Predict the structure.
Amino acid sequence: MDYGKNLFRKMQYEAVSGNFVENLNSNVNMLNNNKTGLCDNEIVDIDEQNEIENNQLENELRRGSSSNMLVSQSFYTQERFKVLLAFIILVFSFFISTISLIFTHDRLPAEKEPLPDIFLDNVKSVDYLLYVTEIQIIIVVNLCIIIIFFHKKRMIVAKRCFLLLSLLYIYRAITMSITVLPISSSTYYCSPKKSSSFLEVLQRSFWVFTGMGLTINGQQQYCGDSIFSGHSTILMFAYLVLDEYLPKKFRWLKRLSLLNAILGMLFLLISHSHYTIDVVLAYYITTRLFWTYHQNLNLLYNNNLNSSKEWWIGLFKYFERNSARSFPNEFEIPWQHHHQESQI
């Protein structure tokens, strides 16, 4: 009896459900038909709207690209001018140091005996090692020029090197002219002293300038350039540049340049070309100036440069304004690079 009632209820439910499903399906079909008609019209409108938006986006991208290109070209021009200006300052500073050398040469003490020196007094002079040191300088300087030329950020690296060397030569011009020491070698040839006019001083300075202050080419026969050593300065500066701007995979070259600097300064002392204090001061002044400059870069980027008290901070701010915050040390072939922005 219960089974019959349940079967009857099931048949009623299925009948009602069938009608409901049938009605529901018909309504869905009607909605789909209406929706299909609406979508056809809407698709046309959407396609037109998308086309309009795409055109607007392309126009904005063109304008943005043109604007970025103008900004990049302007930035590149400014950096190129800064490099040229830094180079002019370097040439001027080096020439001032040669003038200082000429004046110092004419003020040398009459006595020919060198001052007591803890190293020179205990090591016999080997004169030709001065030429070995100068050959080392020529090699490492040319290596630095090659590294800077192929560096992706050659503009930034070049202007920093020019500016730092300018400061070092200014320091050297001051120190060698303030206190004049007897020459450290008893065998080194010095040109005769002259009571020269200023024009003659300029001519003699230009002669030393064209010889880059080296003895090996016979254009440097003037004495008195003590406190501090120019040879040691260049050796240490070249090492610092290579250590700072060479990629990490060239660690062996960094170590080799450090060894070159140490040996070069040692050869200077063995040749009695400089007092020990000249070499020590050259190391100290060069490294502290180089490291202080690069430490100030961090202060500049963190807007905390007001704590820096160096007298040259104004030059620093001008030359480092808008420079890259940080960059990887990478190389490229300049004439195959088509984007000016990455050359800066």
